[in-house]
Amino acid sequence: MTIIKNKTVWITGASSGIGEALAYQFAKEGAKLVLSARRESELQRVADAIGLSEKDILVLPMDMLEFEHFPDKVKTVIEHFGQIDFVVQNAGISQRSYVKDTKFQVYRDLMELDFFSVIAFTQALLPHMSERKEGHFVVISSIAGKIGVPLRGGYGAAKHAIIAFFDSLRAEVWQDNINVTTICPGYILTQISVNALDSSGNKHGKMDDNQANGMTADVFAKKAMRAILSNKKEVYIGGAYEVFGVYLKRFLPSLVYRLVRKK
Predict the structure, then answer these.
(1) How far is 229 from 193, CA to CA, in rounded Å?
(2) List of residues 6+ apart from 109 with CB closer than 8 A
(3) Does residue 262 sit in helix, strand or coil?
(4) Which residues have a catalytic role annotated?
(5) Domain extents in the chain
(6) DSSP label at 145?
(7) Which of 95, 98, 194, 196 could form a disulfide with 155 if both were Cys (CB 3.0 to 4.6 A apart)?
(8) What's the pTM value of the predicted model, to 2 decimals?
(9) Whole-angstrom distance, CA of residue 102 vs CA of residue 8
(10) CA 249 to chain centre
């Protein structure tokens, strides 16, 4: 069983949604927290709601597209807490547009944030974890990275790439006692569809019906915490329909390809 009490946990995208819900769960397990996202005021709101003492929580605003600042951010956390034990890679953005309509720059933007920033952040953290021979990456991918569906071409591609990247990393760093848990959410009730990019790269601005009826972020976070505590390698969390679809694709892929046309 993985021990979280008194460990330092760094969460990106911690100002809302899944990241915020996970911050509350890690705090309940006794973790020390680093909260990162662009919006400092929202990070402070989350920190205030968690209620940890100042020495046990660090609000660290960070733009995930400013790769060059990652080493300094890592140094700041180490200076504050002495070590980094868990990193929850949650920051990202979704998409709602057909391939035929989508500007190519939108795909570049999706990959830059949802894939390349994650790689850059991982590389900034690895020297510290490798030196200590300890660490745990918790990666928020998506069931869209396992099953391609309409309107998510770029998003699904980035999340698929993340799964493959961390599969490789897991195989490379296990001897350094570094663990990787890849979590693939299904429909979770957050603002992800509202904030998604449209075909021109603007905010979609609408809540999907499936998202509106999805699992709440706090229920998701509780299930995710169980997977982390059990050191799961890959886990799917969502409604029965989308989770079953992942397993169905393994054995009846043609059926899944037909079903997703209707979604």
Answers:
(1) 29
(2) 93, 197, 201
(3) coil
(4) 155
(5) 8-260
(6) G
(7) 95
(8) 0.96
(9) 40
(10) 23
Contact (CB, 8 A) for 12 and 61: no
pLDDT digits (tens, 9 = 90+) for 158-197: 999 999 999 999 999 999 999 999 999 999 999 999 999 9
Q: Which two tokens stand for residue 156?
A: 């699904």
Compute the distance between CA of residue 211 and CA of residue 193 in angstroms, rounded to an integer.
7
User: Which pLDDT score is estimated for 2?
Assistant: 84
CA angle 89, 92, 94 (to 5 degrees): 140
If pLDDT is split at 50, 70 and 90, which confidence band does 261 have?
confident
Element of type H or E holding 17: helix 17-28
- The answer for residues whose C-beta is within 8 angstroms of residue 62's C-beta and 6 or more apart is 12, 36, 37, 38, 69, 73
Per-residue pLDDT at 263: 64
Q: Identify the band that residue 262 occupies on the pLDDT scale cut at 50, 70 and 90.
A: confident
* DSSP characters over 49-118: HH---GGGEEE----TT-GGGHHHHHHHHHHHHS---EEEE-----B-B-GGG--HHHHHHHHIIIIIHH
The topology under which CATH files domain 8-260 is Rossmann fold (3.40.50)
**Whether pLDDT at 42 is above 90:** yes
Quickly tell me which residue has 């002495």 as its tokens.
82
Q: Has residue 237 got a pLDDT over 90?
A: yes
Instruction: Map tokens 């009490």 to a residue.
Output: 5
Which residues have C-beta within 8 Å of that of residue 170, sequence separation ≥ 6? 179, 180, 233
Strand ranges in 51-119 using DSSP code E only, listed in sequence order: 57-59, 86-89
Q: Give SS3 for 32.
A: strand
* Integer angstrom CA distances of residue 77 from 40, 74, 122, 181, 226: 16, 5, 15, 22, 26
Q: Is the pLDDT of residue 87 over 70?
A: yes
